[in-house]
Design a protein that fits this description.
The chain is an alpha+beta fold. The chain is built from 4 helices and 7 strands. It has a single domain, classed as 3-Layer(aba) Sandwich (Aminopeptidase). The radius of gyration is 14 Å and the shape is globular.
Length: 150
């Protein structure tokens, strides 16, 4: 496994984000069901991205962007299906947290959806706690927001 640090313009990141969108569309019943969320996931706004490669094949991604002060928001976390359940997501999130901490952030926040129970479980296992919905997610009933001090 190889970890690559890049930004939201990276072609492999863009490709993995398209796969993430396809996966989310399957879960919630199509892009129309997610249209209110799409505007908050602009890739060009994500300046810090980590990609994981297995034998030169991109298999996972995660990024973060400044939210407010010393808080960064985690964005676009995805691991291809065949690599799930092997601890790779924990490694990815640990690398993301380390990078954010090195850049001076003290906390990470994120938004995920109620149907994504495995993602919620992962985040809770690695120390994220559910918080009140923040910002643009404040009135979105399907959103679950979480936070971790790093």
């Amino acid at each position: 496994m190889e970890f690559i640090y890049t930004d939201g313009r990276n072609d492999d990141f863009v490709m993995l984000c398209h796969k993430l969108d396809e996966y989310l569309n399957e879960i919630v019943g199509g892009e129309k069901q997610r249209k209110e969320y799409v505007q908050y996931n602009a890739l060009e706004d994500i300046h810090d991205v980590i990609l994981i490669y297995d034998d030169k094949r991109p298999i996972a991604c995660a990024g973060f962007k400044l939210y407010d002060g010393d808080i960064a928001e985690v964005k676009r976390v995805f691991l291809t299906t065949e690599y799930r359940g092997k601890g790779i997501s924990k490694l990815l999130m640990s690398a993301l947290e380390d990078k954010a901490k090195r850049q001076g952030y003290s906390s990470l926040i994120l938004e995920t959806g109620r149907p994504l129970s495995s993602a919620i479980g992962l985040y809770q296992k690695i120390g994220y706690r559910i918080i009140d919905n923040y910002g643009e997610y404040k009135d979105m009933r399907e959103s679950i927001c979480m936070r971790k001090d790093i």
